[in-house]
Amino acid sequence: MTIARIALVGDRSPAVQAHARVPALLAALRERDGLTLDAYWIPTDEADGLEGFDGIWMLPGSPYRSEAGAVNAARTAREHGIPFLGTCGGFQHTLLEYARDVLGLRVAHAENDPDAGEFLLVPWPARSPATRRRYGWSRAR
Description:
Largest sheet: 4 strands, parallel
Structural class: alpha/beta
Helix content: 25-40%
Order of helices and strands: EHEEHEHEEH
Radius of gyration: 17 Å
Distance between the termini: 49 Å
Shape: globular
Strand order of the largest sheet: 2-1-3-4
């Protein structure tokens, strides 16, 4: 049986349906594939020292308590070659890390910094007139 240490990065909440399903998913992986994951829930405001994990899964549930912690988790995985999965908000923050740290873009996530000058990520109804006005867009992009 294979055992891997995995960091589950996210602000665990019973209100997030995906968080409630994680234990069943881990059990299914163990039963079906013989993969035992030694999983550690790590809040975003404590997401440092992840280099020793075999994998990092940044879970859904944004806005996170710490954007910096979420971005740090993605950076750690990229810089140390750690297998990484970012789902929903986790994927969004992975894009944010890459845009900032690799491409050098000064961009923000509107959910975290609604007054920023440039956005990489904006709310889904970005095509509505109210949202376009809010972010200073003259037309839908």
